[in-house]
Amino acid sequence: MIEILNPTLLGRAKDAGALVADILRTLKSRSTVGTNLLDIDRWAKIMIVEAGAQSCYVDYEPSFGRGPFGHYICTAVNDAVLHGRPYDYTLADGDLLTLDLAVSRGGIAADSALSFIVGDAQPPESVALISATERALAAGIAAAGPGARIGDISHAIGTVLSEAGYPINTEFGGHGIGSTMHQDPHVANTGRPGRGYKLRPGLLLALEPWVMADTAELVTDADGWTLRSATGCRTAPSEHTIAITDDGAEILTLPKQTQL
């Protein structure tokens, strides 16, 4: 299903996106050396409930997972890249942490992820991974607009990731979003320009470039959810929800301008 949102629903999408961004910013500030992943999950739950929103994850039960996800946020550390299920782990200096959050408010969902290094250490490999996905995300957003095609976004993202020297996995990528978290169209992280669905104003997309340092192969944890690099190398995603507008694309998952 591909949804095209009317102006009223787009307003709700902006509200949901700002909430996601504000929660992620708060959680990033609290995610320091010594923080437990289960505490991050607990804080996410509190903020979602207090905002009158609903988690898109806690009851999420797709075919590729094992039962309901059961948590309010994805927390992926180091070699974990996607669907990181929070567990009893204490963050250490130099850990590469990804926080991925999707919530629904007013019947519309928004989805975003950010990756950062915990503590004072700055491992060069981790810095490079994060930078590449952030640049790829910016390129994908720049390629989006009315009349463009999904392949244009995929090509823009893939060009940045390939030029940075990273293998690209196409099993998981970006996706449509709206009244539900995951919708068509799928947005692969590499592709051919001029191909695929033509973008229209009112379409929401969650763009999610992600890479692993030296492989494109994933393995699944015993928890049935967490996806890791097959080689144990470090990984990083970056994600924003965008709305296609009459003259381009608007990022919805940015913090409120009134906050620092």
Describe the structure.
The protein has one domain (7-251): Creatinase/methionine aminopeptidase superfamily (Creatine Amidinohydrolase), CATH 3.90.230. The chain is built from 4 helices and 14 strands. It has helices at 7-30, 37-50, 124-143, 150-163; strands spanning 54-55, 74-77, 80-82, 96-105, 108-117, 174-176, 183-187, 204-207, 210-212, 218-220, 227-229, 235-237, 240-244, 249-251. Strand 4 (96-105) and strand 5 form a beta hairpin. Helix 1 packs antiparallel against helix 2 (37-50) and helix 3 packs antiparallel against helix 4 (150-163).
Question: Layout of helices and strands, plus pairs?
Answer:
Layout: H1 7-30, H2 37-50, E1 54-55, E2 74-77, E3 80-82, E4 96-105, E5 108-117, H3 124-143, H4 150-163, E6 174-176, E7 183-187, E8 204-207, E9 210-212, E10 218-220, E11 227-229, E12 235-237, E13 240-244, E14 249-251
Antiparallel strand pairs: 1-4, 2-4, 3-11, 4-5, 6-7, 6-8, 8-13, 9-12, 10-11, 13-14
Helix pairs in contact: 1-2, 3-4
Binding site for a divalent metal cation 2: 111, 175, 208, 239
Cofactor: Co(2+); Zn(2+); Mn(2+); Fe(2+)
Enzyme class: hydrolase
